[in-house]
Design goal:
It is a single chain. The protein is of the alpha+beta class. It is built from 6 helices and 7 strands; from the N terminus they run ααββββααααβββ.
Length: about 260
């Protein structure tokens, strides 16, 4: 009797683990929650002092290409701060010389004139070419006769005389030109003398006259190169390119990637 009851009880009584194992998954239900439409934001209040990223005392030195000027004077009002300017535009005038914008990223740290070379010269050549003044046949990055003519043409296009790389450049060129004229006349006289009477002396005079004329022409070319137009090192103006829509003018230091002259 007891044995049969034990067997029956074992068939009826189940452990919690067995009951859980034999139980089926509950039916799927729908979970809901109220929703609202609003702008997600978070306000943070901080105290502090707002200052400029960089502050520089701006001074204007005497403009290159001016003579008899004891101090720099702004002779044409600059463009207002924040004004949009374009490459080649004159944004101010100091002591009668233009301050114009030229596109570029290489800082202009020196006078660019005949004989100089480098990335800053290449940048000037590209800027002049973009403005319609091709510096050919000069090689890229080499300031030669082509770049000199292109820069002179740019100055003329904005209504100013080119800046001579030598203070007395015009006088030196005129003197060299006069020397060429004298040498040409001397050579012509020597040839006339040779035609009238061919002697060793007249032949030697023609040879010497031709040599003198060649030297005079070389000196004239050198004087023209030395006295040719140049781009002076910048004063304290710059152009900051703040957006793709254009350029804005401001008075800042020359540590910016875009420069003005």
């Amino acid at each position: 009797m007891l044995t049969g009851a034990s067997v029956a009880a074992s068939l009826v009584v189940k452990s919690p683990a067995q009951v859980a194992a034999e139980a089926g998954a509950p039916e799927q239900g729908v979970l809901t929650a109220p929703a609202e439409k609003r702008v997600l934001k978070e306000s943070v209040m901080l105290r502090g002092t707002v200052v400029a990223e960089q502050s520089v005392d701006v001074t204007v030195s005497a403009a290159a290409g001016t003579t008899g000027v004891s101090r720099a004077v702004v002779t044409k009002a600059p463009e207002p701060v924040g004004a949009k300017v374009t490459a080649g535009q004159v944004i101010a005038e100091v002591s009668g010389r233009p301050v114009s914008a030229l596109k570029g990223r290489v800082p202009v740290y020196r006078d660019l004139k005949s004989g100089t070379s480098g990335d800053d010269v290449k940048q000037l050549q590209y800027a002049l070419h973009e403005l319609g003044h091709a510096p050919s046949p000069d090689a890229r990055g080499v300031y030669g006769a082509g770049t000199r003519r292109a820069l002179a043409a740019f100055y003329t296009s904005i209504g100013y005389d080119p800046v001579s790389s030598q203070p007395d450049g015009a006088t030196a060129v005129q003197d060299a030109q006069d020397a060429v004229t004298v040498a040409e006349r001397t050579e012509q006289d020597a040839e006339d003398a040779l035609d009238a009477r061919a002697t060793p002396e007249t032949r030697r005079a023609v040879e010497r006259a031709e040599q003198d004329l060649e030297r005079a022409r070389i000196r004239l070319s050198e004087a023209q190169a030395e006295a040719g137009s140049m781009l002076p090192a910048p004063r304290r103006w710059c152009i900051c390119r703040r957006s793709r829509r254009g350029w804005t003018a401001c008075l800042r230091c020359w540590a910016r990637p875009s420069r003005a002259r």
